[in-house]
Amino acid sequence: MSAATSSASSRAERLWLRGLDSRRQTARHRLFVFPHAGAGASSYQLAEHFPDSIEVCPVQLPGRENRFAEPPLLSVEAVVDELAPLVAGRSELPFGFFGHSMGALLAFALAHRLRDMGAPLPTRLFLSALRAPHLPDREPLHHLPDADLLARLTRSEFAGLDPELQELLLPTVRADLTVCETYEHRHPAPLPCPFTVFGGDRDDSVREPELTAWHAHTSAAFELRMFPGDHLYVRDTQQQLAESIAHTLPVRGRETSPVRG
Questions:
Q1: Are the C-beta atoms of residues 57 and 32 closer than 8 Å to each other?
Q2: Active-site entry in 43, 101, 128, 244
Q3: Which residues pair with 218 in a beta bridge?
Q4: Which intervals hold domain Thioesterase (predicted)?
Q5: Alpha-carbon distance values, 163 to 25, 37, 158 (Å)
Q6: What is the pTM of this model?
């Protein structure tokens, strides 16, 4: 690899993968975190709840936070095209994926792309608050007029946000909904990675049977765990979520050490 190519790859890593090499001396496993629609990398503060043996790398997509000036991507394929070589290039540690809502779809699609490339696969997928990809969306939203979409979002993703901020974020959220709602599942062979699927027990948008349906997409172990809360249960359960992941995520064939309290 030339110096120029190496420099470009390093810049792309820093842009897309926050937290990379933040625990260079202690990490034995890496967890890539994929955000929900409209969210940026800082929406998840999971790293502080994990032991030093796990390096947490939230994915920063275009169109949010420090990448707000960039146009958001509009398809799963476009996101995976960018992420696949970056993640494949940083497989010196065993790694897992955690994705919430839209992030679960991105994590799932990226794992399939890595398999197609012949690259190392995640040791486990942690998929949260999204119906299995072969199930149709109940009510697509990305095509709604701004006023109608805002009205829907203020009951979920935009709950409690200032109205001006809601309007500022609306184009990014619409793009992310387009990513999810235009995805076409082509029934590829199940992944050999074990799955842990999470959900909120009061989430009206994703019901337990729709979470259980993920079982069809893995040929390995499958587990479903429910947390108290609605679609965004992760906001209030990050420590419990981290504990659940840390005790399941294998580190070179062993369980991780207990999480920090």
A1: yes
A2: 101
A3: 191
A4: 30-247
A5: 44, 18, 9
A6: 0.89
Q: Which residue in this structure is represented by tokens 């947490």?
A: 56
Euclidean distance between CA atoms 27 and 153, whole angstroms: 38
Enter the tokens of residue 226: 């429910």
Burial of 127 (0-12, 13-18, 19+ CB in 10 A): buried
Q: How many CB atoms lie within 10 A of CB 33?
A: 25
Measure the CA–CA gap between 21 and 83, rounded to whole angstroms.
17
Strand 250-251 to 254-255 pairing: antiparallel
Count CA atoms closer than 13 A to 199's CA, side-chain side: 20
Residue 156 is among the residues annotated as catalytic for this protein: no
